[in-house]
Amino acid sequence: MIGVAVVGYGYWGPNLVRNFWETPGARLVSVCDLRKERLATVQTRYPAVDITDDFEEVLRDPRVDAVAIATPAAAHFKLAMKALMAGKHVLVEKPMAATSDEARRMVEEAARRRLVLAVDHTFVHTGAVRKMRELVEDGLGDVYYYDSVRVNLGLFQHDVSVIWDLAVHDLSIMDYVLPERPVAVSATGMSHIAGEPANIAYLNLFFESKLIAHIHVNWLAPVKVRRTLIGGSSKMILYDDLEPSEKIKVYDKGITLNGNPQKNGEKVYQMLVGYRTGDMYAPHLDVAEALGIELRQFIDCIERNENPVADGNAGLRVVRILEAATQSLAERGRVVELEHMRRIA
Amino acid sequence: MIGVAVVGYGYWGPNLVRNFWETPGARLVSVCDLRKERLATVQTRYPAVDITDDFEEVLRDPRVDAVAIATPAAAHFKLAMKALMAGKHVLVEKPMAATSDEARRMVEEAARRRLVLAVDHTFVHTGAVRKMRELVEDGLGDVYYYDSVRVNLGLFQHDVSVIWDLAVHDLSIMDYVLPERPVAVSATGMSHIAGEPANIAYLNLFFESKLIAHIHVNWLAPVKVRRTLIGGSSKMILYDDLEPSEKIKVYDKGITLNGNPQKNGEKVYQMLVGYRTGDMYAPHLDVAEALGIELRQFIDCIERNENPVADGNAGLRVVRILEAATQSLAERGRVVELEHMRRIA
Amino acid sequence: MIGVAVVGYGYWGPNLVRNFWETPGARLVSVCDLRKERLATVQTRYPAVDITDDFEEVLRDPRVDAVAIATPAAAHFKLAMKALMAGKHVLVEKPMAATSDEARRMVEEAARRRLVLAVDHTFVHTGAVRKMRELVEDGLGDVYYYDSVRVNLGLFQHDVSVIWDLAVHDLSIMDYVLPERPVAVSATGMSHIAGEPANIAYLNLFFESKLIAHIHVNWLAPVKVRRTLIGGSSKMILYDDLEPSEKIKVYDKGITLNGNPQKNGEKVYQMLVGYRTGDMYAPHLDVAEALGIELRQFIDCIERNENPVADGNAGLRVVRILEAATQSLAERGRVVELEHMRRIA
Amino acid sequence: MIGVAVVGYGYWGPNLVRNFWETPGARLVSVCDLRKERLATVQTRYPAVDITDDFEEVLRDPRVDAVAIATPAAAHFKLAMKALMAGKHVLVEKPMAATSDEARRMVEEAARRRLVLAVDHTFVHTGAVRKMRELVEDGLGDVYYYDSVRVNLGLFQHDVSVIWDLAVHDLSIMDYVLPERPVAVSATGMSHIAGEPANIAYLNLFFESKLIAHIHVNWLAPVKVRRTLIGGSSKMILYDDLEPSEKIKVYDKGITLNGNPQKNGEKVYQMLVGYRTGDMYAPHLDVAEALGIELRQFIDCIERNENPVADGNAGLRVVRILEAATQSLAERGRVVELEHMRRIA
User: Fold this and answer.
1) Which residues pair with B149 in a beta bridge?
2) Based on the domain organization, do C158 and C101 belong to the same domain?
3) Contact at CB, B188 and A214, closer than 8 angstroms
4) Average pLDDT over residues B52-71
5) Taking CB atoms and an 8 Å limit, are B333 and A335 in contact across chains?
6) So which domain of life are we looking at (chains A, B, C, D) (predicted)?
């Protein structure tokens, strides 16, 4: 039995609490929040769970093996480092930290102490995203592009831009699904409210191969869109997370190239482009709650001393891109190299 | 009666011929194409219309007041200049020319000879785009962003990239609809076929105000998408050209800002963001064929010595952006300034 | 404070409990169910609420002013009658009873004892259905037709047909929205599983006017559909309950009749039919949880001695149609008159 | 070479003319219409084709082997009979005739003279409908239901109800796709315009097996819908004719029955119903123009003395149902038996 404490009972904390409560192998020991009224809610719903507004108390509690951190991102680093130093395994909300430097130090600390450090990239545990990874590994051929749109109205945040709030999802999915890691990023965007961070942004991700990725995020759209296109040389995927049942559609469409290029006037080699239009199919997807799967895996990793799918390095890679994109956005889309990305295991 | 010759009877020429045939005030005199079999088709369908494979003959024909040019873009400049120099009014397909320098010389030649020079930006004559302009002028408030997606499978072109083929539509619509002109452009993209131009591209357009524009074009998408979002401070538009009837949806949605900003910790001023979610409506749109409206207007402009909605300057502005975007794409999205844009009346 | 007991903690009971818990003016006294494990769940979630497996105990409890019955429909009559006879106000799940005779006796008992008898026609408390009623009352003109499709895969029931399971929703909505009550019903359908009730059915409802209504229900459809069309002489409504935001669309479309009919060959009078195609709009809808509104109203009605929107008579009318449709279905669609419908106040 | 005359150049005639013009093996000899201005249009477009307003002239013309009749339905019988008696093969628009008696006499006349009699059930030649037949023959298992919705605004007709105008399409598709023929029909509907035929109708078709079919047609709907659901024991089909590319979706969904029924209280046998939810796929469809395929087949049948897919008997079966449905509608849905349907080969 792994004893767990959840820190932060705001927007996402209740989901962690509910799921840990039902995760086999986990025992929910306590919930920590600075707000008394949030703790009162916990007490009513889970009378058997301890409540506290003192994080140090959580760290001292010998029943607590692991700490799940669901506070605002600015506090992730401090809380996670304290937990690791107290010998606790850590699951931290995304984005993992406020800077890549913080994230790197968290990874190093966990490695040094042989503790599990997991990042709550919830999407990578959904049936849809796991199916996409499967398809990218086997079926799509060479991956040509990854294009994602994640827009809706609100919820404006005051401390971080729409990149940190929405693009973080796409970056965590890409990190899991794509066979390659980006080498550079550029971003454009705009704040339409004086003194506030950007509410609309476009990210370009560059790779060493011909793969190209693009993310559009927007807090000020009249409609909600959650659509990703992945183009491959053999097949193409449309992932629409708002579809109630067929979230993933696989198209047997593409171009075919004539192997015997033609001489054509001045241009010596010109490929003949043909089109292939075959069936579409929507694979049946596992509909189990992603967070439940993730928490079981977190507990398993602690018990077996294994690495989670979304580990500290995955969290670090995502934060590094968020950071670089933020920098690029401030300079009208200057390309920012992601030098060390390949070295983050 | 304005005598008209159509030059080029390939993909688009037949639409020009069919519409000029039915345009009051126009008399379709002749069709010119280098391919005998295309001319034979004209003769069967329009026995009363002259056919010729000699452009000079068209220029010499005193019955011809105006020439409509629907050849590949590379030939536009040469043919249009000859026609203007022969004293003919000109309607030229989009993109107007292969370079902004060519386009500028066409504009100057037409101005010098007081001839009408129109560019076939067909979309600006649709009911949907005209309604958008109306809404942008009165109803949307400050325009925050213009975001367009125009993707589908094929038709790959060998001489120009997807920018010149697809983004030209969006740029011509933006030029007509938006209250401002861009001051710089950047573009990223990729060719996935060796030796061919880019088949996927993303354009960013920068303005002096907080307006931001973005265009995504792709020849290699599994689904066809034609969607534009325009966000304003008062209302927002979704324009989906594939919707059979409700192409334009106007959302009474947005944010409201508290005029009395709060002191909030270190941050001295922080606006309170509220959300407004009202009705949506889809205005009834004029469904008359855009090309028919455009050609009547072209004839009217010749008769009244007026300037068409999409004149040579509009064509020049669009070509200048295409050119700059192409340059930017080759340099991984370097921002290219559009210095003279504001001076193009 | 109105003391409430909820009887039946299966599929729907938890929603009643959760909402009564938060309804101002209501005090959730106890939950009754025959299954110990269901009661244990209640105790964990709501330690302050009494639990019992003895319905008589509920009836004897002087703190209980009202009983909400969420058991299988077969038990509604017996439990509700006992509750009424014990002087308790009653809210009963839909369908209100297994036969119209039972429903009528419940109505009479409640009237005799001046107790509130409400039926949980939840849909009539949604923002969408309330808006439809508003539009039908003012805006649609003469109502021509009401057409509803409610199909999906599962959940097959063994004791009642798809009519009692799905059409009950449409009939309760129609009862609330339409200005007229049906005078006859016919139904066709089929059971595709030996020994089981019909899993697909089509209902026709006849009215004295030219209004016509039709309901299609199906447990064996590959896709989920929840769509209602209401046609009027002035406007038409499309109600799609699966739309995340624009559930109600109002079309300013229809036909116009030439007041001056023409002589046309043998036919002496022939109206000229014209078409009107105006704007569409999607009104903003109240998104408050319907059940919460309904329970507040139930409590209000008890306090003020008023009649709820969906009272016993509404429940009776719906059950009478379900009963007649079931009879018709067994006779290949024979029309069954609903003689007394107009007399049910 | 088969010489063809087209009679009637109104709404559909031009499509026949255009397609016969391009059909290998066919020679378009003449077009006949009573309206001079329609003939003038033919002459302009097809100078090589004879025009005439005298049907007898067509019949006398030895170059004419086959006559295609695209006049109003009321005239089909008279014109087709004359053509058959003159020894001409006949292709007639749908509905084939105004009564089943007329249709039967046409079939008999053609049989007696060994002439090809084809009915223009265009839909059965589309890629989508041919694919559905394939799937019904192999893949769907037992067919449980066929449910079609065909609604839109307009075009009101004065001489026939919406059943003859719209349901004729569904009936011709069903006749081709389903493995069984209906034994009875009932219909309800309403005319909302005084003195005009019904503008909304619902048809039920009864079969000897557990198959059930239903058609909803409506001239007064605010949206256009063309959707058919076919449920089978193994798979289910959604056919949406308005989808630009994926018109046919095949769902591997359904119920599974436990072969070992349970004793359950009083009910001795109760099947356990399980649900199967597998992949969906959208097969690639042939996009060739249906009418072109149909006309080539008509010419082939004449040359090889074969029977077309939609022959006189198919046309007769459809007319018999239309006639019976019309009768049923007038009697509030009384079931009308289709006694002879099985005998129509």
Assistant:
1) B216, B227
2) no
3) yes
4) 98
5) yes
6) Bacteria
Residue of B nearest to D41 (CA): B45
Q: Tell me if A295 is assigned to some domain.
A: yes
Q: Which candidate from D47, D223, D224 shows the least CB-CB separation from B47? A: D47
C-alpha to C-alpha distances, D123 to C106, C157, D132, D146, D289, nearest whole angstrom: 54, 38, 11, 16, 10
**Chain A CB contacts of B224 below 8 Å:** none
- Residue whose token pair is 């899991």: A176
Residues of chain C neighbouring D196 (CB-CB closer than 8 A): 271, 273
Other beta carbons within 10 Å of D315: 30
Point out the residues of chain C with pLDDT beneath 50. Answer: 261-270
The size of the A-D interface in CB pairs under 8 A is: 23
Burial of A315 (0-12, 13-18, 19+ CB in 10 A): buried
Asked if the C-beta of D188 comes within 8 angstroms of chain C's C-beta atoms, the answer is yes
Instruction: Name the token pair of B87.
Output: 């004293």
D173-224 per-position pLDDT tens digit: 999 999 999 999 999 999 999 889 999 999 999 999 999 999 999 999 999 9
State whether A139 and A283 are in the same domain.
yes
Average pLDDT, chain D: 93
Residues B59 and B168 in one domain: no
Local structure of residue A335 (DSSP, 8 states):
-
Task: Please judge whether B277 and A153 are an interchain contact, meaning their C-beta atoms are less than 8 angstroms apart.
Answer: yes
- Measure in Å the smallest separation between the Cα of B47 and chain D Cα atoms: 8
Chain D residues touching B224 at Cβ < 8 A: 244-245
Is there a single domain that holds both residue C12 and residue C74? yes
The pLDDT score that the predictor gives to residue D195 is 86
- Residue D256: what pLDDT? 82
Convert the pLDDT of each residue in A77-124 to its tens digit.
999 999 999 999 999 999 999 999 999 999 999 999 999 999 999 999
Structure tokens at C180: 């007229």
Q: Is residue D231 part of a domain?
A: yes
Which is nearest to D232 in space by CA: D276, D170, D191?
A: D276
The partner residue sitting opposite C335, judged by closest CB among D192, D251, D332, is D332
ipTM: 0.93
**Stated pTM of the model:** 0.92
Residues of C in contact with D246 (CB under 8 A): none
Helical residues (DSSP H) of chain A, grouped into ranges? 13-22, 36-45, 55-60, 76-85, 100-112, 127-137, 162, 168-177, 290-304, 312-330
Number of domains, chain B: 2
B259: CATH: 3.30.360.10
Whether C52 and C102 map to the same domain: the answer is: yes
8 Å CB contact of B244 and D242: yes
**Which CATH number belongs to the domain containing residue C14 in this structure?**
3.40.50.720
Instruction: Please indicate if any CB of chain A lies within 8 Å of the CB of B154.
Output: yes
Range of the domain at B277: 124-288+320-343
The span from the CA of C42 to the CA of A49, in Å, is 17
> Is the CB of residue A287 less than 8 Å away from at least one CB of chain C?
no
The subunits that touch chain A, with at least 3 C-beta pairs less than 8 Å apart, are B, C, D
Picking from B246, B253, B275 by the largest number of C CB atoms within 10 A of its own CB, the best residue to mutate is B246
Quote the minimal CA–CA distance from A45 to chain C in Å. Answer: 6
Chain A residues inside the 8 Å CB shell of C224: 244-245
Instruction: End-to-end CA distance of chain B: give it in Å, rounded.
Output: 30
Total CB pairs under 8 A between chain B and D: 10
Is A146 in the same domain as A272? yes
Query: Please, are residues B201 and B149 in contact by the beta-carbon 8 Å criterion?
Result: no
